[in-house]
## 1
Amino acid sequence: MIPRVHKRGARTIGLLKYLYGPGTHEEHVDPHLVAAWDSFAPDPGRDPQATHGQLQQLLDQPVQAVAESRRPAKHVWHLSVRAAPDDPVLSDEQWGEIARRMVAATGIAPANDDSGCRWAAVRHADDHIHVIATLVREDGRKPRLNNDAKRSQTEARLIEAEYGLKQLNTGDGTAAQRPTSAERHKAQRQGRERTAREELRETVRRAVTGARSEEEFFGRLAASGLLIRKRAAPSGDLLGYKVALPDDRNKDGEPVFYPGARLAPDLSLPRIRERWSADHSDQAPSTGTFGRATPNNPSAARRRIASAAWTAITIVEHGDDAVAAAHIAAAGEVLDALAKTSAAHTRRELRDAAFAFERASRSHVRAERGHDRVLRQAARDLVHGGPALGRGEDGATTAMAIDMLFFLITATMHWHAKKGHAQQAAAARQAAEHLRSAYQAAAAQPLGVLYQRGRRLNRPLLQRQTVLLHEALPGLAEQILAEPGWYALAVTLADAEAVGHDPSTLLSDAVERRELDTADSTSDVLVWRLRRLADLPADTSGAPERGTVKHPSAKRPVAPRPTSPNRSRGEEAAGNTR
C-alpha cells in the first residue's frame, strides 16, 4: 500500500472537481465518497442533488470561520493511498476504514478528537482513494502535521499486515518520483512499455554515464532525440535543464517537459556536476589488458569492467560509507552503459537490471565522489567502445563482466540491508536476478566451447587437474567435480599453466578473496575469475561453430547421475576422455 502526501493547494473546489471529474484521460470511473468527517456529508458522485460547491463550502467552513490573517495560505491537504498491483480489490467499507486510519495517523483528525479537521475520501478507481482535508480544525487551531508523510507510511505497514496485503518497504525520501495515474494511463493508451517520465529518466541516466562535461552530457541528450530546455541566470550561468519526449504532448499539443530533479534526485544539474568535478582531466586513458583487444574494443572495455567490479566489491564490503556509496552509484552507471551497448540476446535483462538498480544507487549516505573514478571510467569505456557482438571475445567478456557485476550488486544488497535501507536492498536483489538471467544468456556459448575442450583433455592432464583441485580447494573439490562446469574449469587451469601461471595459487586467490555462496555454479565463477586473473582470452573458439553444444551449467546447475558408489566424478571424466 502506497500513501503519498501531495503538495498543498489553495482551492478546495479545484481538487474536488478533479477527484469527481473524468480524469485527465477518462480514467476516473464512478467517483464517489467512501468516508468523511461527517456521515451526512454530500456526495456529488452518487447523489444527483449534491454539488461540488456544497461539499466545498462544508469543508472550507472552519477556514472561513477564522480571521483572514490566521488562515493558511494553502489550506488544502491531499493524500492518495494506492494498493499494490497484486493486492485484492478492496470494498468501499474497507477503503473508508483505511481513510479514517490515515487521517488519524497523520494528525488531520486524531482518534477520539471531535475537533479535528474536516476531510473526505473519494474513490474513483478500484485500486486507490484520495483524501482531501482543510487545514483548520473545528476549534480554530491548526493541525499538527509534522512528519505526516512518514506517519502515513508507518500506518500503511500496519494496514498491510492486518488486511493481508502485500508488505511493501517504507521509503526514505530518496526514491525517484513515481509516475502518476494520468501518466500511466497515457502510456497505456499510447502503447508505451513505460511512462514518459520513466523513459526520460532512463535516457538521462544513460547520457550522464561516464560523461565529463556539460557539453558532452547535453550532446548525448540531443543525440538521443530528446527535446531540451536550459534555464540560465541573468549572468548566463546554467542553472538547470528540462527534457521531453518529442511525441509526448499535452492537450494543447505542447511537449511535456520534466526537470532533471523531478526525474530523480541525483539527476539535477548540481548533483550531476558533482560527478564531473570529481573527475581528473589528466587521468590516464585506459589501456587494453589482452593483446588482441584495443582500448576502444568492446571486449577490452568489458575486461576493465570485470577488473573494476572485482576491486569495488572489497570497497563496498569494507570501505567507508561515503566511499562505498560512491561506488554503488557508479555501479549504476556501469549497468546503464552495459545495457546500452549489449547484444540483443542480453539487452532486455541488462536494461531491466539497470532500471531496477536505479533505486539502489541512492540513499541518505551521501556519496563522496572521486573515489569511484575507476568504475566511472570503465562505464565511459563501455560507451565509447560501442555495441558488443553476442559472440566471440565480445560475448565471452560480456559473460565475465556480468559475473563480476553480479557479485558487486549482491555486495550492495548486503550493504543496504545492514543499514536498514529496505527499498534499496530489495531493488539490488531484483537487479541481481536480472543479471543472473543475462549471465545465463551470455555465458552459454563461450562456456560451451570451454566445456567441449575440457572433455577432450587427455586423461593424465585431467587427472592432474583433479589432484590439483583437491590440494588447492579441499573443502570445495567434490562439489566442483560434481558440476558440469568442471570441464571448463579444468581446461582453464590447463590454459593458465601453459602460459606460466601456478594454477594452485590462482585457485586459492580466486576463492579466498570473494564469497561463492551466491553462485549457481562455483566452477563457472572460478572459470571467469581465473581467466581474468591470468589474462587469458575469454573466448577460445575463434568464429563460433554451428551446432556447438551449450554448456549445461550456463543454464542451471544439474546434479550428476550416480555412476558407481566408489567412483568420483573426476575419475569418471578422466575415464571418458581420449
Note: The chain has four domains: 2-163, 192-263, 298-442, 451-576.
## 2
Amino acid sequence: MAKEVDTRYTQDRELSWLRFNERVLEEAKDESVPLMERLKFAAIFTSNLDEFFMIRVGSLYDMTLVKEEHIDSRTGQTPEQQLQAIFKAVTPLYKQRDKVVEQLESRLRACNICRMSMDEMDTKERKQVENWFQDEVRPILSPQVVDSRHPFPHLSNKTLNVVLRLESEGQQSLGLIPVPQSLPPYFTLRERGLRYILTEDVILEYAKRLFPAFSVQGKAVASVTRNADISPEDETYEVDEDFRQHMRKIVKKRNRLAPVRLELQGGRDDRAIDFLCRQLNLSREQVFFSKSPLRMKYVFSLEGQLPPESKTALCYPPYTPKASNFLRPEEKVLPQVLHHDVLLFYPFQSMDPFLHLVREASSDPDVLSIKITIYRLASKAKLAEYLCAAAENGKEVTALMELRARFDEQNNIQWAERMEEAGCTILYGAENIKVHSKVCLITRRDKGKIQYITQVGTGNYNEKTAKQYTDLCLMTARPEIGEDAAALFRNMATANMEGNYKQLLVSPYQLRDKCMEHIDREIAKGRDGYIFLKLNSITDRKLIDKLAQASQAGVEVVMNVRGICCLLPGIAGLTDRITVFSIVGRYLEHTRIYRFGRGEDAALYISSADFMTRNTERRVEVACPVLSPEVRKKIFHIIDVLTSDNVKARQLGPDGEWHARKVGSAPCCSQEVFQEEAIQEEQSIPERPAKPKKGKESLWKRLFGRGK
C-alpha cells in the first residue's frame, strides 16, 4: 500500500516550473523592457519549454513504463496523473505566447523590423526570395512522399519539417520536407530596415513545386520533441570502453528516443495530424498548435543586424562587467588573494580576475598543482587554455570533467581530449553521481611550506554565461578551506564520496544534514531565529519539511527562489512564517546563498547546490563558509538589496501563483542597483601610486600590511 503523502504545504514540481516559465513570459509583456529584449524573453520562454518537454516530461514518460508504481512525494500523484496535469497547463501558455509575439512583432514593424510573409511582399522582394530558394535552398532539400511504398522516416528531435497532405488520383499521401539545419534560420531582404522571412516559411511557400504530381490539400510546419532524459549510468558499456566514447553514443541517442510532443504551426489538418500521431505513438493531447515560429533562437541574432540608432532604442544599454574593488587591477591577482579573501559578483563584475589567477599560477615557479572540477565550459574557453599551459609548464593539472552535463556533453568531451593532449590528468567522477561543484585548488610551496589558494563558486567556469548569469566567486588562501578542498579532490579521485570536512559542506553525504543542523539551531531560537536562502529551486522533501517545522517554531524564513518551489508559503499554522519571492530580469539569477541567523555572526555560505533531491543525494556539491568580514558584509548587502526588490520580484502565494509586490515610494530593481554599484565601486578603486623611492613602503603595504 502506498504511503500517504502530506500535501498541505507542497505543490507539484512540474506545475511550479511552468509557472516560473510564465514569469519569463511576463517579462515579454513588461512595458519597461525594451522591445527587442521582450522578443528575446518570448524566445527564452520557447526554448525553456522545449527543454522542459525533453527532460521533465521525458523523465515522467520513462516512469510510466516502469512496473513499480512511483508516487510523487509532494503531490501523491502518479506519473500519468502528472503528465495529464502538464498537458492541460501547457495549452493556454501557447496561446499567451502567441498573443505576446503577435503584439511585439506588430510594434517592431513600426520600427521597420518586420518578419515578413510572402503575401505582403512586393514583386521585387518576392523575386529576391525566389532566387534564394532556387539557388541556395532547393538544391539541398530532400522531399519525401510517405505512402504504402515509402515508410515513415525518422524525425529528429526539434528539427523543423514542412508537412503536406497530398492527393493524386483520389489517393491521399503525406509529404515531408525536412528543413536542413545547414540553412540560415531566415533570409534578409535587401531593402529598407530589417525585413526578413523565416526559412521554413519560404519552403512552405514553394513546397508545391517539389511535388508536381500531387495537389496540396493542407500544409504546416511540424516539430517533434523527443525524450532527452538520458542517464548514462543506466546504460551498460564495456569495461575497456573509453567513457568519452560511451558518452558520444549516448548523445547520439538523444535524437532517436521516444517522442513526447508534436508541435504544429499553420493549418490544422485533422487527417494529417491523426496520421502523424499514429506514426509517432502520440495522443492528441500531446499535440500543440502555435501561431508563433516553433523555433525562435533566431531572435538573438537579429540584434547584430540592427543599425546603431535602432539598437539603442530597442535593446538594453550595453554593459561591460566591472573590476572588483577587492583587487587592485594593476597588481597580480595571486599575491593579493594570498593577502586577503576576494569576492567577484558576476555579471556585474568581471570573471577576468579568476582567469588571471589561473594564468599566473600556470607560470608561477612555486605552484605545484592546479585541481579543478568542470561542469560547463564555453566553446572558446581561456580557462581551459590556461590549464593546458600549466600542464605544458610542468605543473600537475587535474581536471574532474563532468561529461554528463546535460546538453554540454559534446563540448566537454572535446575539451577533455584537448586538455589530456596537453598533459592534464582528466577524471570523470564517480559512477551514478554527477560532479556539479565549482571548486579550483592551487597548491604552492613557499619557503618550504604548503600554501593553498581555493576558489569556490556558485556558477560554472563558463566565460560566456558569466556575463549573463548572476553568480558569486570566492577566492581565498585560508588554510582551513584549502585543506578541506585538498581532501575533497583526494576523495573524488578515489571515488570516496563519504569524506568528512571541517569547513566545507559537501553532498551527497553531508550537505543536507549540516543544513538541517543549522535550521535546528534557528528553531531553538524560536522567534529570534532567521533563515535566508537564495536558490534556483527547492524540491527536497526533507528540507521542505524542516523549513515548515522552523516556521511553526516561529523562525522567520525568507527564500529567494528563481524557479521551482515545491514549498507553499503562507499556509496558516504550517508555513505562515515563510516568505518566497522570485526575481526574473535582464540577467538569469543563479547565485546560491545560505544564511542561518541574524546579525553579523550568522552562519553564511555560498554554494553550488540547490535544495533539490538530485543535488543533495546524487551530486557532488560544495557549500563554502564565508569567513572574511569584508566579504560577509558584501553578501549581507546583496541579501538586503534582493529582499528590497519590488520591481522585478514576484511573491509566491499559498495558491502557488506568483503575485507582484507592492511598489512603495522608492522602487527597487535589484539588478539595476547591483549594476550601478559595480560602476561606482570600479570608479572608487584608487589609481596605482607612483613607484616609491628606495626605503619607503608602498601605499598598498601601508593600507593592507605585508601579508599573512
Note: Residues 232-241, 698-708 have pLDDT under 50 and may be disordered.
## 3
Amino acid sequence: MRHGGRLLADHLAAHGVRRVFSVPGESFLALLDGLPDAGIANVVCRHEGGAAFMAEATGKLSGAPGICLVTRGPGATNAAAGVHVARQDGTPLLLLVGDIERGHRGREAFQEVDFPAMFAPLAKWAAAVTETERLPEMLARAWRVMTSGRPGPVVLSLPEDMLDAVTDAPDRPPEGPRLSPDWSGAAAAMLERLAAARRPLVVAGGPHWSERAAQDLGRFAEAQGLPVALAFRRQDFLDNEHPHYAGELTVATNPALLRRLREADAILLLGARLGDIESAGYTALDPRGHGKVLLQVHPEPEEPGRPWRPDLSATAPAPDFVAALAALPPGGRDAAAAREAHEEYLRWSSPQPTPGAVRQEEVIAHLSRTLPPDAILTNGAGNFAAFLGRYYRFRRWGTQLAPGSGSMGYGFPAAVAASLHHPGRTVVCVAGDGDIQMTLNEMSTAIQHGAAPVVVVMNNGTYGTIRMHQERRFPARVSGSDCLSPDYAALARAYGGWGATVERTEDFPDALEQARAAGTLAVIECRLDPEALTTTRTLSEIRAAARGG
C-alpha cells in the first residue's frame, strides 16, 4: 500500500528520473514525501518560472523529460513561461501541479484554476488525475505524449486528496524500445531530388539531436558537397568550423546567408520548421509560392504543409534520417558553393568594432577562443544574444541552451541546470541586464545545490531590443526601456558567490580566468556603452536612419 505521492515518485524513478526542480507547496506534500525514498533529488528553486526553465533545460540536455513540481494557482501560472519554451522548442517537459481537493472544484476555491483548460494552448496534453490508482496509467501516457513525434510539454494536475489517498495499484513498467524503420530507401529518394538542384541548401534543426547526429550531419554534407545552415538557436548541431557550415538563420541573419536561402532552388529541411525567424518574417520564402523544391523531414506528420508545401516529405526523427543520408555513397557535386558559404560565415563572425571601453564582440570572441569545446553556453533574450550568436563558434552538440521562444530570464536558470547536469564541464551564461534581473534570485538556488556557472552580464542600462525598435519607430522618444541595475558583483558575493566588474575589454580575460577558478557561482558584470546597441549599428545610427538622416 502506498499513498499517491509515493506511487508517483516510484514511477518517476522507474522512468529514469533522478532530479526534479520545484518550489514547494502544501498541495503536493505527499509527492515531496515520496521523493527521498524513490531516490530522486529535489532542487528547490526560488520562483516557479526559474524551476520550469531549469527543467526545460534539463530536457534539452538529456533528451528525456525534465520534471518540474509546482503548487496550484500562482505556482502554475508562474511556471507557464517554461511550458511555452518547451512547446516552441520541442522539448519534453512534465509539469506536475499540486491542486485543490477534488470535492472543492467548481466553487472558486482558494487558488483554484482549471489547469487542463489553462494549459491547453501551451502543452501537448494537459489533464487532471482524479483517481490515485490511475497515476501509473496517466504517467505512462504523459511519457508517450512528451517523447513522441515532435516532443513537448505535458501538464498533470494532482488534487491534494488524490495524492494523499492510499492504494495497492501495481507498478506499471516503462514502455519497451521503439522500433525504427529502415530509412535508406527514403534517404536515397530524397537525395536524388536534392542532387538535381543547382543551388541546394540544407537547413537542420528541431528535436532529437545528439552528438552522433551532429557528426552524421557533417559527414553527409561533406560527402554530398552541400552547404548547411542551422535553424534559430540550434548552432550546436554542426561544428561551426566544419568547412560546409553556412551559419545560423536567426533574428539578424548574415545577409549573405539570407541571400543564399532566397536564391536556393532546393531546400532540404532536416527536423527544422523554417518559421518566421529563419525566413526573415516569411520574406525570404513566400508561403503562397516560392518556386523552390522543398524536401522536409520532420517527426510530426502534421508539420509539413504548415505553412510550406513540401515536394517530398518523410515523417521521421531527423537524426535517424541523417544517419541514413550519411550512409549513402558520396555524390559528384563540386563543394565550391559549400566552401564559399563557410567563407561568408567566417567573415561574418569576425569581430566588427562597436563603441565603448568594453566591446561585446571582443568578449564573446575571447570566450570562443579560450573555452573548451564542450563548454555549455546559455542565454535568454535581448540584443546581447545577437553578439553571442554571431561571434561564438559552437563546436560540439549539447553546448547551446537558448530559448527559441525568445523568453527573457531563461539563460541563468538554464546555466544552473546545466551545471548540475554536467558538474565537470564549464558552463557560461551570457545575459543582458534586463534579462538577468528576471531570474537572478536563482543565485540562491545555485549556491544551495552546488551549481557553479560563470555569468557574464552585459549591462548597458536599457532593454536593448525594445530600445532598438523604439528608436526605429519613435526616434529619441524613450519610454519604458530604461533599466536600473544593482551592483551584480556585490550581489553575487552577497549570495556567497564570486563577483567582479569589468570596465575595460582588456580586463575581461583575467576576470574570466578567476571566475572559472572560483569553483562556485561567479558573476562578471561588463559595463557597456549604450551606443553599442546591435552588432551592426549604433544607437545614434539607428536614430538618424529613422529620422531620414
Note: The radius of gyration is 24 Å.
